[in-house]
Each structure stands twice: as structure tokens, then as C-alpha cells.
Description:
Pfam families: GST_C_2, GST_N_3. This is Glutathione S-transferase family protein. The chain is about 60% helix and about 5% strand. The chain is α+β, with helices and mostly antiparallel strands. It has two domains: about 5-75, Glutaredoxin; about 85-180, Up-down Bundle (Glutathione S-transferase Yfyf (Class Pi), Chain A, domain 2). The longest helix has 24 residues, at about 195-215. Glutathione (GSH) binds near residues 48 and 49.
Amino acid sequence: MPTLHGFSYSNYYNIPKHALLYKGVVFSEDLVYASAEGYNKLSPALKVPSLTTDSGHHLSEAAVLCEYIEEAYPQRPLFPADVFARNKNRQLMHMAELYLELPNRRLIPFSLSKQPAPEQLIAEVVAVVERGINCINALATFKPWLFGAQFTMADIYLYYVLTVAEMGGQITGVDLNQRIAGLEEWRSAFAADPISQRVAADKEANREGFFSYIKSRS
Ligand SMILES: N[C@@H](CCC(=O)N[C@@H](CS)C(=O)NCC(=O)O)C(=O)O
């Protein structure tokens, strides 16, 4: 049985978790924070999530876990069969991370501490997020999923990226629902799925533990 390492408050952790649940893979969860002793053996970058495969190998980086999960568990495919469509899917995943997740992630410390973020930082974040908005508008159809009828890995990836993008948006004032037509309805449909609700409930159950961990490190 594969083991997913990390914590449920992490949006990155919830990406492979959602994919595993969608495919009906039986897996165990190992609650671990990135600074735990020995965690570098699972994830050299000391980032959550990581996965230990059935054969005892360790992998890390959420997008890599998505690829591994699809290859190791081909049931209920999450990438399109067509090679171009499959790579278009990956294109959106990469763009969502680079231009929506990572810039907004820079604002997490200010969101958690409720301290004002420097104007220069906000301007830098907004400049990158504008690219992200253009990318999603150019690629996604929202009919009803990002690339049409098939629910794909890109849907999972973007949904959890938006957790951090929304947190940052409260500081920058960028409202993605206003800027990306169809995003809000798509997100509501995703959130209504029982798997999304299970992931959200697990996240909520980890809230106290996560904030105690953050406090213990400051
Ligand atoms: N590029 C990594 C990023 C993962 C990431 O940033 N995870 C956060 C939790 S949401 C983390 O481990 N943070 C710990 C740290 O930066 O020390 C991935 O795709 O898995």
C-alpha cells in the first residue's frame, strides 16, 4: 500500500490525496510536517507532500506524484488519452503553480501574522498573478471541467492552488472569480463532490495541529 506523507492543511498535500481517492487507491496517510527529523530522506527539498510507493521508493513534488499516480494506477484516468490534450493539461498545471500558487505563497506569512505586506511585494505578486489569470482564461473552458467533459488532473491541481491564490487575493485585492469567467461555478461544482468534502473535512481536522506546529516554530 502506498503511503502519502504530509499534513491535511497543506494544499499541495491535498492534490495527490484527491487523485488517490478519485482512483479508489487504498493508501495510508502519515501525518508529518516538513521539518520533522529524517524527512529529508523522503523529500530532499523538505517539502510536503511525498509518497512512499508499494515497493518502498520515495517520491516528492506534487506534480510528480500526480504523474506517478496516473501511471501506477491507470484506472479512472485523470489525464486525457490524446497526447496533445494530455500535455495541454500539464501546461495548465504548471502555469497554475508558477503564476498563481507561487507568487501568492509569498504572502502567506502576512496572511497568517495579519501584518501588512510591503507594497513592493504586493506589486510583484500582482504582476505575476496577472500572467496566471491570462493563462487560465486562455486555456480553460469550464464546460463543465477545465478542459470540457473529462474531469482531469488539471482540475484537481488548480482547485487546490486556488486555496493559496485566494488567501493572497485577500491581501492584493485581486478577485479571481471576477477575472476568470466560469471559475466560481466550476469551483462550486468541485467543492460539492464527496471527495472534495472528505479532503476539506480532513483539512479542518488538522487546523489546530497545523497552527500549533507553526506556533512552535516561531
Ligand atoms: N514544489 C513543492 C511545493 C510543496 C510545498 O510548498 N509544500 C509546503 C506545504 S503546503 C511545505 O512543505 N512547506 C514547508 C517549508 O517550506 O518548509 C511541491 O510541488 O510539492
